[in-house]
Amino acid sequence: xxxxxxxxxxxxxxxxxxxxxxxxxxxxxxxxxxxxxxxxxxxxxxxxxxxxxxxxxxxxxxxxxxxxxxxxxxxxxxxxxxxxxxxxxxxxxxxxxxxxxxxxxxxxxxxxxxxxxxxxxxxxxxxxxxxxxxxxxxxxxxxxxxxxxxxxxxxxxxxxxxxxxxxxxxxxxxxxxxxxxxxxxxxxxxxxxxxxxxxxxxxxxxxxxxxxxxxxxxxxxxxxxxxxxxxxxxxxxxxxxxxxxxxxxxxxxxxxxxxxxxxxxxxxxxxxxxxxxxxxxxxxxxxxxxxxxxxxxxxxxxxxxxxxxxxxxxxxxxxxxxxxxxxxxxxxxxxxxxxxxxxxxxxxxxxxxxxxxxxxxxxxxxxxxxxxxxxxxxxxxxxxxxxxxxxxxxxxxxxxxxxxxxxxxxxxxxxxxxxxxxxxxxxxxxxxxxxxxxxxxxxxxxxxxxxxxxxxxxxxxxxxxxxxxxxxxxxxxxxxxxxxxxxxxxxxxxxxxxxxxxxxxxxxxxxxxxxxxxxxxxxxxxxxxxxxxxxxxxxxxxxxxxxxxxxxxxxxxxxxxxxxx
Length: 565
Prior knowledge:
The protein contains 22 helices and five strands. By secondary structure, the protein is mainly α.
């Protein structure tokens, strides 16, 4: 691939793919039935299957990227619908192969060739699918797309201009309090106007997901969700204990931060629309044009690490960055990949705020890890680790770029670093609130929309006790959760950001003491990709596991010292 902007892949023909898998299955059966089969033959058969997966996943990811780039394009929408329709069948075909691999008496030999972790992942993934849920999965995907389309199409009038949900968020950091309030009110009025549809979409998603879990033999969607997330080394009890650690050690620090904000901003009461501002002069914004920022990023990555610099140059040359806001472009940011090309892709929505730098460095962390892991990856499972481990790479790179922030913020660089650390700490209670909310929702799958909004308010009392929405529409009655795309689109993902943040903060501390060592440890971790589960990767990098007592306490103490709190 020379240029992503013109890159395309044909839609796979389901009948042809099914026939291809039938041939693969026959070849694998013959190999596994022969006790004297050579390692070379086993490697060749499994690698052939992996090649088919890479080809199809490249197409699937490309379809998703194009739809997010232009949600109003009828061709991209049709391709997305086709992808949603055939994805369950493709999953069924892969599960068929995976079951053969995990159940064969030759599994110890296969594990010696490919590593044991992939087989544990396949065992978990196999338990999340059965042909009886095919239609439910199609409907689930369509509802997720409906939410994505609805939010991408948002048009918000403010100060005589029209904004979408991504572009209006820049006013959260505006120095003028009336502007912050007005923009926040305009945005949440959109959510209030669309509350009924947002409630309906989520209600149907909860019902479908709960129904899928029951069809697969689970009591609730919670256990199934953990398996969908490929969590092999911790469970809901571990996460519940971790959330309690956040309440004990982080929530009190966040309350101190809010009091400091009130003093800094000279406010009698810190309101919700004030929480994004940490300086009375306004939060620092990146300098220069978009083109200048890309040039600065190239210089930064060149200076940080040779491999990182070469990688970013490749991303630019092949147009693997889509960072500017456009009408009908989906919100948020993400990193995807094209396994057949062994290349990642970054999607974001720059709006002129400091968040542009944070989101960009975050997604670059994902992309660099992905690219680093393709080299020598015998299986797709070796490229991306499980999600919470993925987020270590992204969040850590945010901190590792700190020494170069003068490029982007000039004299305001230290203000940016302080605010970045503050927001990283403040994020933890919100992140666990989102996670706890989903556990509570699927414990009551028949709850009414009103009850779901009330449950969110319970979470706020536990983790966000200082939040004051005043007279803002929607959020003042428990609707803030509907802004979080992950709740609709990637259930039970969000806790992963908080687990990774604990690890990223440890990388920050290490980089403050010895940057070269921290950077090399980071690059080495990226190259390990998905060869180990979360705990193994954390241990391999010399980090403290967030599930172990004391990890948060140490991070909080180190943050207090830096922030002089």
